[in-house]
Hints:
By secondary structure, the protein is mainly α. It has a single domain (26-211, 235-408), classed as MFS general substrate transporter like domains (Growth Hormone, Chain: A, Up-down Bundle), CATH 1.20.1250. Helices cover 77% and strands 0% of the residues. It contains 15 helices and no strands. It has helices at residues 29-50, 56-63, 67-70, 72-95, 97-115, 121-135, 139-149, 152-207, 221-233, 237-263, 271-278, 283-298, 304-317, 323-352, 356-408.
Amino acid sequence: MSIPVSAVAFSSALSAAEAPSSRLQAGTAAFRATARAMFVGGFCTFAMLYGAQPLMPMFAHDFGLTPAASSGVVSMSTGALALALIPASLLSDRFGRRALMIAALSLGALLTLLSAFVDSFGHFLLLRALFGAALAGLPAVAMAYLSEEVDGKSLGHSMGLYIAGNALGGMCGRFMSSVLADHFGWRGATLALALLGCLGAWLFWRWLPASRHFQSRRQDFARMRREVGSILGDGGLPWLFLTAFLLMGCFVSLYNYLGFRLLAAPFHLSQSMLAWVFSLYVVGIWSSAWVGRLADHLGRRNVLWLMVAMMLAGLALTLADTLWLMAPGIALFTFGFFAGHSVASSWIGLRAREAKALASALYLGAYYLGSSVYGWLSGLMWGSGGWHGVASALAVGLLALLAVALWLRRLQPLPQNA
């Protein structure tokens, strides 16, 4: 998710006098409290962000749109979110993590509420773009918050739990909006998503502990230029950014046009039945947490390429004209995506060293730009070749991603990193 994730303002490094034991470790009460709050934050973020995705056929019908045009309900939000990540990162460096994440989730819920009452698709897209920009404050900060507060040996686990919240939120948002749309239309479904976001913002505010290791710092653009040079000069980080772009682009593209395929021949599913297919998203809840722990032990380089291969196998199964094969294909694809995102996102914090915040923001920027750009381009392929056109576009992206993952497997690890 989904991905999954995070980032921004990460203080440049631990103080030399700071003991590693001061970080949160898995199994402690403080770790569980933090994980619970971040799980809820990720849940509501992705529920509101992707709850509009199964409504795309309904928007296309009501407003006379092509599938590619209707994908704007997702791509406008994710594109705006991607562009707002670095500004949100800078705000977080100055004013702190917790306040910005609470404000982002609350404003996102308010804008979703307003979008339920618009009178045109253009106004809906405008609010979705504003929603994406506002919501950027949570995923932009989450990875940095976790990287600052959680012990390195537990980071993969905590990141996996956060991404598991993303997965569950994405699934429940899609499921809920699909079912409600059958009875109350897209407005009723959007209103329900907004109310869910309001509840999540309140719980997030109540549960999330204050940062213990954050240090406010003024913006130093000369330092930022040095950090960018350090990031781009790293042997792995630029490739991990490309990984994020392709991972999320392929994943969102599959789910963007899945509804159009399953509502048409030979499946002829209803909107409510489509919700049960989207519930296959649940495999990402388990995969992100389990594979995150596995990567902590076996090394990220040894796990990532296997997850991409799993996505390719799942994509092949979606070409079948029977749900008995297509459903397992969707499940495999979803498992591989969330697991791969969990591995890649936690790898960023380990390689970035002193530029963790900016590296995390760049990772997420590539991640959400992939959703926006690749999701739209694959819609054009739908127009020319239907599902086989979309699958061809995804196969190209996944093969490129597999090549990147295999190259990363040869990357020399940094000291104490996987």
